[in-house]
Amino acid sequence: MQNAQANEDARYAEDFARIRETQIDNVLRIIHTAIERIKMSLILPKLGDDMDHLRSVLKGGMYAPAIGLIEKLQTLDTVKVQILNHDVLKIIDYFHRNYQIYQLFPRLVNLLSNDDKKLIVACETVLAVAERHLWRTAKSEISMERQLHVMYHEREELRSRTAYYHKKLKSRYAVLRWKQAVKFLILEKLETDLANRKWKNSVRIQNEIEKRSRILRDVHKNTVQKQKDLEEELEKAKVEYEHLITSITVNEKEARAEKNKLLIQLENILQKFDTNIGEKIRENLELEDQYKAAKKELDIFMVSYRKEEAIYNKIVVKYEQEEQRKQQQRILLFMMNRAARQIQKYWLKWRRDQRLKARRQNKKKRK
Q: Is this structure's pTM higher than 0.85?
């Protein structure tokens, strides 16, 4: 009896879980469809802005009737009909049933305003939250509780560690206070040493100041004496300078007189030069005319000279080539005669050696 009741409860629970899954799927599908229709509604007013692009995308496909509906919607907009017009509602209903059309126009989705994009993000957030809450089960809640329990223990452990480190910091703070006190004593000692050194340095500086003041007084006396000597030398130099100025003025007057004399002589020389240079220019012009005439005669002569030179070069080249050919023939004849003489000489020597060799062999046979 108890087993039958348990089986019935299990079957009832299984049926309830199956029904719950179906209901959750239906709710999520409805929300998802609503979000897709909202996206379609947001880009619907912009579909008619570029009819050429709309026709190129939808023509020949399963959504081709949407082209005529958009054209009709534009006509209705021009007439300024009410939003609750039957034709307008029919067009909107077609696009809501075929909301997949917006996926063919991703550029229009990207060009939506910030408020429209916020609306889409809010709807998608609602879908995600609903999906997370609807699919939440007892098993998932238990696992979440376990995770929270683990997190609680970790937090307690972190608190104990924090307390331990807090105590450790207090002990270190006490050590630090002790070190600071020691440093304070050391600083006081150093300050006293520094004050003693300052006093000694001030005494030394005072003695040095007195010593330097005596030296400065002696230097001042010597400077005053030297200044008097320099003033006397300056008076002497002034007198000598005045005598020198007078002598320089006299010499300057003499130099100016000499300069005027030389200028007059230079002007006379320049006049003579101008007359002579005019004559030279005339002679130069005459010589240039003579040069041009002579150059013209030379050009005429050079024409005939080049012709004669070409004939001469042609004859000389032929003569040199003939002489070179004869020279080569003589050299070749000499080489052939020399080679013949050498061959004849070697042949006579070889014949004589053969005869001597034959005589020696005959003598050996006779013996």
A: no
d(CA 205, CA 203): 5
Instruction: Band the pLDDT of 137: cuts 50, 70, 90.
Output: low
DSSP label of 190: H
What local confidence, expressed as pLDDT, does residue 267 receive? 84
Q: At what angle do helices 65-79 and 51-58 cross, to 10 degrees?
A: 160
Give the position of tokens 């599908």. Answer: 29
Record the tokens describing residue 44, joined without a space. 């619907």
Tokens linked to 138:
């007892």
Residue 135 neighbours by CB under 8 Å, 6+ apart:
24
Distance CA 315, CA 85 (A): 120
Sequence-ordered alpha helix ranges (H) in the chain: 2-43, 51-58, 65-79, 86-97, 106-110, 114-134, 138-366
Cβ neighbours of 104 (radius 10 Å): 13
